[in-house]
Amino acid sequence: MSAEQATSGRHKVVVIGSGFGGLFGTKALRRTDVDVTMVAKTTHHLFQPLLYQVATGILSQGEIAPPTREILSNQKNAQVLLGEVSGIDLENRTVRSQVLGRETITPYDSLIVAAGASQSYFGNDHFAEFAPGMKSIDDALELRGRIFGAFEMAELGAARGENVDHLLTFVVVGAGPTGVEMAGQIAELAHRTLKKDFHHINTQKARVILADAAPQVLPPFGATLGGKAQREIEKLGVEVMLGAMVTNVDERGLEVKYKDGRVERVNSVTKIWAAGVQASPLGKLLAEQSGAPLDRAGRIGVNADLTLPGYPEVFVVGDMISLDNLPGVAQVAIQGAKYAAKEIDGRLKGKAPQKPFKYFDKGSMAIISRFRAVAMVGKFRLTGIIAWLMWLAVHLVYITGFKNRLTALLHWAVSFIGRGRSERTTTEQQIFARSALARLERGSHDLVSRPGEFDAELLRQQEGRRLELEAQAAEESRLTDAGERGVRVG
Ligand SMILES: Cc1cc2nc3c(=O)[nH]c(=O)nc-3n(C[C@H](O)[C@H](O)[C@H](O)COP(=O)(O)OP(=O)(O)OC[C@H]3O[C@@H](n4cnc5c(N)ncnc54)[C@H](O)[C@@H]3O)c2cc1C
């Protein structure tokens, strides 16, 4: 089933993605004589840099993921279309998207592709089942459930006299900014927030491990700042394991191999993957049609004006591109998207092309714990409370919406000045829904009727198959007493 988007006859711009590139590109087209359709697979704009605060109970998901429709509600020339893009036809200039079996074909005159990147497990995708990444709201809520759930399970086990060390060991893989921030927050949770909440466990004895194959923490920040960050995080009680390549991950732990060949097993139920990114598969799709090169992380090589080689009407921005070693950071996506929007507008007005895209580096920062951060701004290297205050100011400016800024500030006061966390709600579904959906043949598509197919007779027929799939999912996810996966039925 396919539906073609209605058109008004004006120049049509399609923007893929509602992240930093997608949102800022759409907003930059506000005062131009075009119709914009933003096609995105989620209904929200996600502020990824604060995902770890949702995962550790500081912020709510709504504060970092406001609805895109609401953000753009006053932009008359923009509409939002929910759907995952699965096809881009460069010759016929159309984008194909789907949601729950409903397909839409959207024609474009100009296209901005800003589909970002996902987690990379460096060819070991099976690690994902036991070590979720941190790229989406689903990931953050699942991690929140797993982290707080581990303390609950440890309390239960300790009350029965069992060894709960594996439940009180948390491993964060990847010592970049996300890994450092995540490890720091879990340490604060264990050593500060939760210390009075349990009777049978001492949460202050929890082990928080930050592991990375690299020889230093925060490699992009250089040796001096990286060293300072490592000392700070160790003061919080985080164990830093460097030169440690993760070679296997399973339900009860992981295995690391050091450069000297030594192999160590760490028993840990809660593992978090914060290492490596892989560009959206849409990059490959564009490369196949245009002949543009792809790098090892799946990023597509674009022209200096961010256009796809051979297709001047197609711009690719943000985490998906490989150009001049630009880093995968929000400002690259924002500035690239604004550049693309200006070029589209300029062409319609008959202006000369802009100079090649030049990224203006406004600096980088990573928060280590409350009142401690590291920042790199131009030649300046800042640490401690000054860097932390800068972090606070920058994040307040970039969080979308006044209400979200205000509530985030209140939640930060609760967590940083006090010891509370306002967002500790977790549910069983947060923890297990991802694996359960992955075991169905076509994920959530299997749980709803297709368009035009809703009739009682058909439902009765489908029910049998659905029950069969659910039984299979339940059986596959069951653990035997020996801690092994249950056998497949049927
Ligand atoms: C945990 C974490 C912490 C970070 N911290 C920082 C930081 O402190 N500072 C910093 O500068 N950067 C940080 N980054 C990086 C920054 O978030 C990215 O560089 C930035 O989001 C890239 O913007 P983008 O528009 O290219 O992609 P994204 O913001 O990822 O947006 C991609 C969009 O495309 C949508 N999409 C993807 N595939 C499809 C499809 N097939 N169909 C339809 N829609 C699709 C997604 O749903 C999303 O809306 C962090 C990233 C993460 C994950």
Characterization of the model:
The chain is an alpha/beta fold and 490 residues long. The chain has two domains: 3-120 and 278-348, FAD/NAD(P)-binding domain (3-Layer(bba) Sandwich), CATH 3.50.50; 125-275 and 370-438, FAD/NAD(P)-binding domain (3-Layer(bba) Sandwich), CATH 3.50.50.100. It contains 13 helices and 24 strands. The protein has helices at residues 20-28, 51-55, 61-64, 68-71, 137-159, 177-193, 222-235, 282-290, 330-348, 384-398, 402-417, 428-439, 456-477; strands at 2-4, 11-16, 34-40, 78-82, 84-89, 94-99, 102-107, 110-113, 117-119, 169-173, 207-211, 238-241, 244-250, 253-258, 263-267, 270-273, 277-279, 300-301, 307-308, 311-316, 321-322, 364-369, 372-377, 380-383. The strands form seven sheets. The protein has a six-stranded mixed beta sheet with strand order 4-3-2-8-20-19. Strands 1-7-6-5 form a four-stranded mixed beta sheet. Helix 5 packs across helix 12.
Low-confidence stretches: none
CATH topology of the largest domain: FAD/NAD(P)-binding domain
Strand content: 15-25%
The helix tally amounts to 13
Task: Indicate how many domains the architecture comprises.
Answer: 2
Characterize the largest beta sheet: strand count, sense, and whether it forms a barrel: 6 strands, mixed
Radius of gyration: 24 Å
Please estimate the helix content: 25-40%
Tell me the distance between the termini: 32 Å
Q: Oligomeric state of the chains? A: single chain
Helix/strand-derived class? alpha/beta
CATH architecture of the largest domain: 3-Layer(bba) Sandwich
How many strand segments? 24
- Give average pLDDT, whole number: 92
- Please give the order of strands in the largest beta sheet: 4-3-2-8-20-19
Bound chemical compounds: flavin-adenine dinucleotide
CATH class wording of the largest domain: Alpha Beta
The coarse overall form would be globular
